[in-house]
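Thread: quick sanity check before group meeting

JM: Hey all, I'm pulling together slides for Thursday and realized we never actually wrote out the predicted structure for the chain we discussed last week. Dropping the sequence here so it's in one place. If anyone has concerns about the input, flag it before I start.
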Amino acid sequence: MKLTQEQYGNIHDALNGFGEARAYSGRAMYGKSCLGIVTDTPTRAIFTLATNLADMEENELLTMLRDAPSREDSMGHRVVVYFPSLEVDEEDEDEE
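JM (edit): ok, ran it. Output follows.
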């Protein structure tokens, strides 16, 4: 499933500084980009994201995130939580 530019922007806004939404290509994705959230506090970032999306009444997006399988990769001092089934275009990222 592909996220719209508006959904991607809402995720960025809802993170409220506790993470950065970006296009990410994780293990076994073969160059395909998906939603990645880079953070040093993954639990807090996901909780903040869910709380703020609920406040924004983004129920469809919340359901998509809840149902999408997620993975984590270490990036040194930070972690990326990514959702391989939620596609993001690199162009959408640049327009933020």
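AS: nice. Residues 5-94 form one domain. The beta strands are 20-24, 34-39, 71-75, 78-87.
JM: adding both to the slides.
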